[in-house]
Amino acid sequence: MIAVPVLYSSDLLRSLAFYTGVLDFELRYPEYRELSLRSGVIDLVCDGGIVQLSRHMGYQPTASSVNLEMETPLQVDEAFARYTVRGLDQSHRTASPVHLAPLDQTWGTREVYVDDPDGNTLCFRAWR
């Protein structure tokens, strides 16, 4: 069994640009890109993980969060550096240090949080 988180997207083209242009995701079914956009559901993959974006989340959708496990703490740092170079700007999240840079958490993980354009939070983390 594989769990696939479904995250709300108010604008699939904007979300697709963020997930594939800033983050490291790719379309799971690139041959169905246009059909996916019309239907309102896009499947993305990254290193074997799957995330689904959907504009069909009811009348008042709320933001979600998902943990994305990485192999090593160094990968968390490297991913955040890549995302920042590609345009990730979370400087407005001053009240949340874990949005500004990877941190070692007291429970044994190294984490960094990334918010997508709809406020969904992706926690990239690895056990130390």
Give the helix tally.
Answer: 4
Tell me the distance between the termini: 26 Å
Could you give a short account of the major beta sheet? 4 strands, mixed
Shape: globular
CATH superfamily of the largest domain: 2,3-Dihydroxybiphenyl 1,2-Dioxygenase, domain 1
The low-confidence parts are none
The fraction of residues in strands falls at 25-35%
Helix content: 25-40%
Radius of gyration: 15 Å
Q: Give the SSE string.
A: EHEHEEEHHEEE
Name given to the CATH architecture of the largest domain: Roll
In total, the number of strands is 8
* Widest sheet: strand ordering: 1-4-3-2
The gist of it:
By secondary structure, this protein is of the alpha/beta class.
Could you characterize what this model shows?
The protein is α/β, with parallel strands linked by helices and 128 residues long. The chain has two domains: 6-54, no CATH class; 65-127, 2,3-Dihydroxybiphenyl 1,2-Dioxygenase, domain 1 (Roll), CATH 3.10.180. The protein has four helices and eight strands, in the order E-H-E-H-E-E-E-H-H-E-E-E. The strands form two sheets. A four-stranded mixed beta sheet has the order 1-4-3-2. A four-stranded mixed beta sheet has the order 5-8-7-6. The protein is globular and about 40 Å long. The mean pLDDT is 97.
Compile the SSE list and pairings.
Elements: E1 6-8, H1 12-22, E2 26-27, H2 33-39, E3 41-46, E4 49-54, E5 65-69, H3 73-85, H4 97-100, E6 103-104, E7 109-115, E8 121-127
Parallel strand pairs: 1-4, 5-8
Antiparallel strand pairs: 2-3, 3-4, 6-7, 7-8
